[in-house]
Amino acid sequence: MKLSVQAILLLIGGAGVALAAHVPPAAAQSAAYKQGEEMRPIYAKPEDIADGKEFAEASCAGCHGPNGISTTTGIPDIAGQRPAYLFMTLKGYQQPGGRANPAMPTAVKFISDDALIKVAAYYASLDPAQPAPGPAPSYVDPVQAGRSAVAPCAGCHGETGISKLAGVPSLIGQDAKYLIAAMKAYRGGQRKNDTMKSMLATATDDDINHIALFYALQKPGRAEAPAAGNAQAGRASAVGCAGCHGDQGVSGSPTTPSLAGQDADYLVAALRAYKNGGREDETMKALAASVDDAALKDLAAYYAAQDPRAPNVRPPLSTQEWTQRCDRCHGLNGNSTDAHFPALAGQRIEYLQSALRDYQTGVRNNPEMAAMSSGLGDEDIKNLATYYSHQKARAVVFMPVPGK
């Protein structure tokens, strides 16, 4: 029986393999199904799969490994993958403006639909890759990790980041991105503070991320040490700062610090550092250059008297919560039962990480995945990839349903 391009879902068993799925004409594969197009079955017999195996061994095994189990970093396992997804993906590489990959468009450019169907049927008929070796993964709760990591900070910055000591900054009310940048600057020596450099010398990027998240999620409050300047006099000077630091010192930018509720002595010290070059920032140096000490104290007193606000930072979802969202399309534990969506279970960990980052950055053009991945942090991506790579991959049987 000649295979048609109408096709490609897989039924394994009996005399052969049944494939069913309409082949969408464009690279945006999932969109076609939303427009009401239906899948229709065709059948791939053992000889068709044998033809697919011969082609795959000649053209695909060099990258994707013998029997579709990759031995190359960054190259996905495709054994046991859903055949409709395999076929649509290969067609996507053939389409102008389709899937981005430096090697695949050239590899599949002149391959016929008939050959692609047979290759997809062959790989779908294979046993999928087994879970990644090693013990079952454990997942870090970033908020709890932050709570533990900030213990050494409490002596100076307060238990929840609200300073009680004059000259020591409060850390609440700041976006996590700003806190991360500040801590890395202390660790790297760009900000001159021997104590902070020593405290952060052994901190990893993950540690810094956890600390920043912990403080960003705390309830805001004003620093407790009294201010020496005149807050009312400082109000007029603050007008020139609002463009960057926001009205009443509440920043609208995640990379610009909020000043509301900040310790006054710390603000004075920071402004002096910008004046004398202790902190390197040409904009701040120019703004602070003409302000005398009395005016600096008044400005600091004004901001110290303002009420800080919580930044727009949400508690992160747990890995379990993320996988529940992913499983809606990709199946329980990443074992897809929908022809439109790839199975994730047992897939190579580094490939899953790379794919998620490509959806985030637009290298892979898929509106649904771009939206789903936009809220993922680096740790979320690592955890999700680890989770799915350790799930047992299972073959799936698609069965035709009689029409009404």
Short description:
This protein has about 400 residues and is an all-alpha fold. It has two domains: about 200 residues, Orthogonal Bundle (Cytochrome Bc1 Complex, Chain D, domain 2); about 160 residues, Cytochrome c-like domain (Cytochrome Bc1 Complex, Chain D, domain 2, Orthogonal Bundle), CATH 1.10.760.10.
Keywords, please?
404 residues, mainly alpha, Cytochrome Bc1 Complex, Chain D, domain 2, 2 domains, three-stranded antiparallel sheet, 20 helices, disordered N terminus
SSE layout and pairings?
Blueprint lengths: L10 E3 L2 E5 L8 H6 L6 E4 L1 H14 L1 H4 L18 H12 L9 H5 L4 H12 L17 H8 L4 H4 L18 H13 L5 H7 L4 H12 L14 H8 L3 H4 L18 H13 L5 H8 L3 H12 L14 H12 L18 H13 L5 H7 L4 H12 L15
Antiparallel strand pairs: 1-2, 2-3
Account of the protein in words:
By secondary structure, the chain is mainly alpha-helical. The protein has two domains: 11-134 and 318-389, Cytochrome Bc1 Complex, Chain D, domain 2; 142-304, Cytochrome c-like domain (Cytochrome Bc1 Complex, Chain D, domain 2, Orthogonal Bundle), CATH 1.10.760.10. 46% of the residues lie in helices and 3% in strands. The protein has helices spanning 29-34, 46-59, 61-64, 83-94, 104-108, 113-124, 142-149, 154-157, 176-188, 194-200, 205-216, 231-238, 242-245, 264-276, 282-289, 293-304, 319-330, 349-361, 367-373, 378-389, and strands at 11-13, 16-20, 41-44. A three-stranded antiparallel β-sheet has the order 1-2-3. Helix 18 crosses helix 19 (367-373) and helix 18 (349-361) crosses helix 20. The two termini are 26 Å apart.
